[in-house]
């Protein structure tokens, strides 16, 4: 398996800015010489992530995640080191040396990288088809739905031709294997026989992009009227997981970050038509209900979400379900209702962006929305006391559980009790009491944030970094923060003096880079062997205030290491009974020369 040369890796690291990279995923705010933001590696509510443009590192002060550009991408995108290098090389437009261009592939095994290239190929293929004569019907449809040519281009729309094998034939001519097409979800195996056929046929294609604008899936709108399924989506693949992705986030992220507000719709055109009209921050779920992963993703950019519902659709149940997922992430939720008979797309086309923006601005909070719907149900229940009672109980339950997760405070809880009491002609105090009773029955921690999916490669392995002798740590810490002192240390100790396996590994590279005169943090972080020690490395890098006082710290630490070595050497000689050597050693150190290694043999 070919490996990238160190020179190439360093080149990629130098071409990548950590602030820019991390900023693609989380909102960063400038604070002094650094940037801060919500850490994506733990359930963060106060910005714990610091990113240093000077040192080109990131570090979370809560969960300990940290490292350089490669560590971040590996941890966030769950990539291997070579995959991360390749990705950043592509982003920086650095040509990947041809001898490394073939990724190793296991038998029939397909990796993310191949899939990514497959998706790019398919996106381009569909785009070109839309501009052929065969694309006319699809273009007409897109125009009829209100999309401009500019938008069709901007959003990457395409046509899946009315054919069983248009895409697969084109892919085969390009040397793309069936395994890749299958793994990308673009073809389907024929049942009971050999061969495959294209999944998307005679459809207007909406590519779905990730945050870095790589196509990861497709939605396809049927162009034939008699087609049963109006919309179909890519199945979940290595790249694409519907329950975690939001359509349009790549275009809306900056607006969401700036305004703090995300507008959530359901569907491709409901996203694109508002975006085209400059209604900002619109994203959509893709055929799934909102999950806590969606909300967690949004909470990195937004502090408030506005759900846009059709008047005739979902309503209360959907709002209540959404409220539950948002509660755990402490995002405020409001609900905007599109007047009957419309969806967001039609509404914007008919009434304009201003009307849509006003609808969003004026949207009541989710609790109010649910209360209003509950009251309608309550009235509709008429004399049915059991139903009335259930409706009220369920609403009080919702208030109580929301309050228990901090989604609403005591004041708001009291207001809601007043409100309900007034409408039902029941004393608010009674309702308050009922809520207290409900609160006692509440299960604890039912919305605790889910555990991280897998071990974060940005975190040091526990065994590797426990029991690190302070003196060894101090030496490395001084050297990476003040490389000028490298020679001072190197003339007295060397990497073999480090007993901690983690620091021994780091020291070998510190010495290698230091001897060559370019000991820099970003170079260390770009060393493949150190990639699992990224968090330890940045933990030692002085972020923010320089700790200064390096020289005495270094001298003290080196003295200590040498004394320890002396002790060990003496112990070893004593056990062998080599008195002569032991005397030499003792003499050497008795002269007070702690500066140099003794020459014994
Ligand atoms: Zn963290």
Widest β-sheet, arrangement of strands = 1-2-3-4-5
Low-confidence stretches: 101-107, 444-465
Distance between the termini: 43 Å
Which secondary-structure class do the elements indicate? alpha+beta
Mean pLDDT: 83
Number of helices: 27
The Rg value, from CA coordinates, equals: 31 Å
Structural account:
- The chain is α+β, with helices and mostly antiparallel strands and 601 residues long.
- Helices cover 49% and strands 11% of the residues.
- It is built from 27 helices and 15 strands.
- The strands form four sheets. Strands 1-2-3-4-5 form a five-stranded antiparallel beta sheet, with helices on both faces. The chain has a four-stranded antiparallel beta sheet with strand order 6-9-10-11, sandwiched between helices.
- A hairpin with a 6-residue loop joins strand 7 and strand 8.
- The structure holds zinc ion.
- Zinc ion (ZN) binds next to loops.
- The site of zinc ion (ZN) has 9 residues, from loops.
Write the layout of secondary structure elements.
Blueprint: H1 6-15, H2 18-23, E1 29-31, E2 34-37, E3 49-52, E4 57-60, E5 66-67, H3 69-77, H4 81-91, H5 112-130, H6 136-144, H7 149-154, E6 158-160, H8 166-173, H9 178-183, E7 187-189, E8 196-198, E9 203-209, E10 215-222, E11 231-233, H10 249-259, E12 261-266, H11 268-276, E13 282-285, H12 292-299, E14 304-310, H13 316-328, E15 332-338, H14 344-351, H15 353-361, H16 366-380, H17 385-404, H18 410-424, H19 428-441, H20 462-465, H21 470-481, H22 486-490, H23 501-515, H24 521-525, H25 534-540, H26 550-576, H27 579-590
Parallel strand pairs: 12-13, 12-14, 14-15
Antiparallel strand pairs: 1-2, 2-3, 3-4, 4-5, 6-9, 7-8, 9-10, 10-11
Helix pairs in contact: 3-4, 11-14, 13-16, 14-15, 16-17, 17-18, 17-19, 18-19, 21-23, 21-26, 26-27
Bound molecules: zinc ion (ZN).
């Amino acid at each position: 398996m070919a490996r990238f040369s160190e020179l190439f890796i360093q080149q990629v690291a130098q071409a990548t800015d950590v602030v820019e990279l991390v900023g693609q995923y989380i909102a960063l705010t400038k604070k002094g010489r650094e940037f801060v933001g919500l850490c994506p590696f733990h359930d963060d509510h106060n910005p714990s992530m610091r990113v240093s443009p000077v040192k080109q590192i990131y570090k979370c002060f809560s969960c300990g995640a940290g490292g350089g550009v490669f560590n971040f991408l590996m941890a966030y995108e769950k990539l291997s080191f070579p995959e991360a290098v390749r990705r950043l090389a592509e982003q920086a437009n650095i040509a990947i040396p041809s001898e490394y261009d073939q990724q190793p592939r296991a038998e029939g095994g397909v990796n993310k990288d191949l899939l990514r290239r497959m998706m790019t190929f398919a996106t381009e293929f569909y785009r070109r088809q839309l501009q052929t004569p065969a694309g006319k019907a699809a273009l007409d449809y897109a125009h009829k739905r209100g999309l401009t040519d500019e938008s069709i281009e901007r959003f990457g729309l395409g046509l899946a031709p009315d054919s069983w094998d248009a895409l697969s034939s084109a892919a085969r001519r390009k040397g793309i294997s069936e395994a890749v097409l299958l793994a990308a979800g673009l073809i389907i195996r024929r049942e009971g026989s050999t061969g495959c056929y294209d999944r998307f046929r005679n459809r207007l294609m909406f590519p779905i992009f990730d945050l870095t604008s790589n196509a990861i899936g497709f939605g396809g709108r049927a162009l034939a009227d008699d087609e049963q399924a109006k919309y179909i989506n890519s199945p979940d693949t290595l790249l694409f997981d519907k329950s975690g992705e939001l359509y349009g986030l790549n275009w809306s992220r900056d607006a969401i970050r700036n305004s703090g507000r995300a507008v959530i719709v359901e569907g491709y055109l409901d996203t694109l038509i508002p975006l085209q009209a400059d209604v900002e921050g619109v994203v959509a779920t893709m055929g799934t209900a909102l999950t806590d992963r969606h909300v967690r993703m949004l909470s990195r950019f937004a502090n408030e979400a506005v759900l846009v519902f059709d008047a005739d659709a979902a309503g209360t149940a959907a709002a209540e379900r959404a409220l539950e997922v948002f509660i755990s992430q402490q995002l405020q939720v409001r609900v905007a209702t599109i007047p009957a008979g419309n969806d967001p797309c039609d509404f914007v086309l008919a009434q304009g962006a201003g009307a849509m923006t006003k609808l969003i601005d004026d949207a009541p909070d989710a609790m109010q929305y649910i209360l209003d719907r509950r009251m309608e149900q309550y009235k509709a229940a008429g004399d049915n006391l059991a139903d009335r009672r259930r409706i009220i109980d369920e609403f009080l339950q919702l208030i109580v559980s929301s309050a228990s997760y901090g989604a609403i405070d005591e004041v708001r809880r009291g207001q809601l009790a007043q409100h309900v009491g007034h409408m039902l002609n029941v004393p608010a105090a009674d309702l308050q009491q009922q809520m207290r009773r409900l609160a006692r029955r509440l299960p604890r921690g039912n919305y605790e944030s889910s555990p991280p999916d897998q071990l974060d490669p940005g975190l040091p392995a526990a065994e590797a970094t426990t029991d690190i002798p302070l003196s060894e740590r101090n030496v490395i810490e001084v050297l990476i923060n003040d490389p000028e002192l490298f020679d001072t240390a190197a003339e007295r100790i060397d990497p073999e003096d480090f007993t901690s396996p983690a620091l021994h590994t780091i020291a070998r590279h510190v010495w290698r880079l230091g001897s060559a005169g370019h000991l820099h943090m970003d170079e260390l972080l770009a060393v493949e062997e150190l990639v699992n020690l990224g968090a330890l490395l940045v933990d030692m890098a002085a972020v923010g205030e320089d700790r200064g006082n390096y020289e005495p710290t270094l001298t003290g630490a080196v003295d200590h290491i040498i004394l320890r070595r002396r002790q060990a050497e003496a112990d070893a000689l004593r056990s062998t009974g080599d008195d002569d050597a032991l005397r030499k050693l003792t003499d050497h150190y008795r002269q007070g020369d702690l500066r140099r290694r003794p020459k014994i043999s």
